[in-house]
Specification:
Blueprint lengths: L1 E3 L5 E3 L2 H10 L4 H14 L4 E2 H15 L1 H7 L1 H8 L4 H13 L5 E2 L2 E2 L2
Helix pairs in contact: 1-2, 2-3, 3-4
């Protein structure tokens, strides 16, 4: 069974990729297992990875809204768009204050 990635490429469905992302969001193994089991029942050939992500988010939100917010952190930051620059500057200042150097897609902030 194949999924369609955001770039349009086809890739074989791999539930371990879901497990990896849930693990990075520190989702309990038992919850991850239940979510993966449910998604495996619903996935079909040609489904987009975006649709899989939305389904995982919906299921995770039912089990643990706090973990769902961690799982969606990358998307949340991306939704800030150009308006996210002040947040990026703030984070960079915290990093710089700690004695490290923060770099940005907008250039060197430190």
């Amino acid at each position: 069974m194949y999924v369609i990635k955001a770039n349009g490429k086809k890739e074989e469905f791999n539930p371990e990729k879901i497990r990896g992302s849930l693990t990075r969001a520190r989702v309990d193994r038992a919850i991850s297992d239940e979510i993966i089991e449910q998604v495996e029942k619903e996935v079909f050939d040609g489904i987009s990875t975006g649709a899989i992500f939305k389904r995982v988010m919906a299921l995770l939100n039912e089990y643990s809204p706090a973990r769902a917010s961690c799982y969606d952190l990358k998307e949340a930051i991306m939704r800030l768009g150009p308006a996210g620059f002040p947040v990026e500057t703030f984070i960079a200042e915290i990093v710089n204050y700690s004695g490290l150097e923060a770099l940005s897609v907008y250039g060197c902030l430190g």
